[in-house]
Amino acid sequence: YGDPNGWNPRGLTYQGASTGALYDGVSSLFGTNGRGGASCDCGVAYALTPTGDTWTESVLYTFCPQGTCTDGAYPGPVAMDGEGNLFGSAVTFSKKSKPRSIAFELQNNGGTWSETILHTFCVLHKCADGIYWSSTPFFDTDGNLLGTTSKGGDGHKDCCGLLFQLTPQGENSPYTILTSFCEKHDCVDGAQPQTDIVIDASKNVYGA
Questions:
Q1: Hey, how many other C-beta atoms are within 10 angstroms of the C-beta on 14?
Q2: In terms of DSSP H, where are the helices of 92-203?
């Protein structure tokens, strides 16, 4: 608790991963810790850089630095685009609403990393646009981010999650709902997706 380097790791990525390239073994790896940090135990984004047999961690961004958490807290896994920017989700809190997710981008500006909030979930009535981003961010071949939420959507009782597409273009990035789950009686089409997704050459999406 209170470790500025963070704890509770949420997975690793690297530049080139979005194209399917194998990790080269010598460049930096990037990830998030869902807890810890120098501010409020709300998580960090970090880089791991190898030098021989030694790995050095560098904290790139500490979430909730002012204690208000408008930038999110408890980040999930991240994906990296070809330009070295990191994309992921975090949780926000409000006295007027339940916790919900945001989609964020972290950009490297001369060694200083800054955050842009691309999308805030649960802004539509009954959270028809989803609540909690539940999968690792995934880039398609057009540079769109695909993901799932475990709750929200237009399905039965607005409870059961959806598949979405987010096109990174700064604040209020274009957001499209591809399908909502539990639209059929007794949720025979599934509900509350929790696993990561994959996409084939024809842009069909697979998950569970």
A1: 20
A2: none
The rounded Cα 154 to chain-centroid distance in angstroms is 22
Strands (E) in the chain, as ranges, are 7-13, 29-35, 44-51, 54-62, 78-80, 86-94, 97-109, 112-120, 138-139, 145-149, 162-166, 175-180, 198-199, 205-206
Q: Is the dihedral of CA 144, 15, 106, 127 positive or negative?
A: positive
3-state secondary structure of 18: helix
- Separation between Cα atoms, residue 173 and residue 98, nearest integer Å: 23
d(CA 107, CA 133): 20
Cα angle value 120/77/24 (rounded, 5°): 135
**Average pLDDT, whole number, for the chain?**
90
Q: Count CB atoms within 10 A of the CB of residue 162.
A: 27
The 8-class DSSP code of residue 23 comes to P
The pair phi, psi for residue 109, each rounded to 5°, is -115, 85
What pLDDT, on a 0 to 100 scale, did the predictor assign at position 97?
61
Q: pLDDT-based confidence at 126, cuts 50/70/90?
A: confident
Whose structure tokens read 């790139």? 60
